[in-house]
Write a structure and sequence with these properties.
alpha/beta; Glutaredoxin; 6-stranded mixed β-sheet; 5 helices; elongated
Length: 235
């Protein structure tokens, strides 16, 4: 039979073992809390970085992706002298063409210049979404399939070759602003077109190798003749 001393010693060992178990359990809980707290801290920092980057970069990218609204310009263009598109085109030395219709199907894919028989395109299969009206900054043109779709909606697409002097681009912006930018798009051409400046409508093309005073009558008369003449009338 165990003596009182042995029983006392057994109780002491049991108490010490229990205290050790509790100490280890508390230590484990503390480590878990530290790790979990660290993960939360990392997550919070990452989220803040994402928000900052998204606010500083992503928002601007989204804004830059869309066109600007045509606004009144201080740039002065020569006053209009001619109202006939064929006469004006010939006087300016521009090519006025009426290419055959290449269709108007909708296809969800990326379109390239090789998909069209004219350069720049004037009709043909295109992306289901259309490009918005407005002025696109250089290097930020809408996808080609969307630009062709805009022609189907009666838009006038004004485009210039990469490397065009800023003075000419400013003049083109002033030209687009003449009618408040109504149903017009202005952008840098991406099809390696043979012209310095071109305007397109559905099944219609005016291409100019050079830009001079008479060019503006050619552009104006083309706009007035073919705007809102696409097969689909979209506001």
């Amino acid at each position: 039979m165990a003596s009182r001393q042995e029983e006392k010693e057994a109780r002491r060992r049991a108490r010490l073992e229990q205290e050790e178990k509790e100490r280890k359990a508390q230590s484990r809980r503390r480590r878990v809390q530290l790790v979990f707290g660290g993960l939360i801290g990392v997550a919070i920092v990452a989220a803040l970085v994402f928000v900052v980057i998204g606010g500083a970069g992503g928002g601007n990218d989204e804004e830059e992706a869309g066109p600007r609204v045509a606004a009144a310009s201080d740039v002065k263009l020569p006053p209009q002298q001619e109202s006939d598109v064929e006469v004006a085109a010939k006087a300016a030395g521009c090519d006025l063409e009426h290419p055959p219709n290449e269709g108007a199907g909708h296809e969800t894919r990326e379109f390239t210049p090789a998909d069209y028989k004219t350069n720049p395109p004037t009709s043909g299969a295109h992306f289901p979404q259309w490009a918005q009206d407005g002025i696109y900054d250089p290097g930020n043109s809408a996808p080609l399939g969307e630009l062709v779709h805009s022609l189907e909606h009666g838009r006038i697409n004004v485009q210039y070759k990469p490397g065009t002097p800023q003075q000419v681009i400013d003049q083109l912006e002033a030209f687009v602003a003449e009618n408040g930018g109504y149903h017009m798009l202005l952008y840098e051409n991406t099809t390696d077109m043979p012209y310095q400046v071109a305007v397109t409508a559905w099944n219609q093309l005016l291409g100019c190798d050079e830009v001079g005073d008479k060019t503006w009558d050619a552009l104006r008369t083309f706009r007035d003749r073919y705007i809102d003449k696409g097969p689909e009338q979209v506001p």
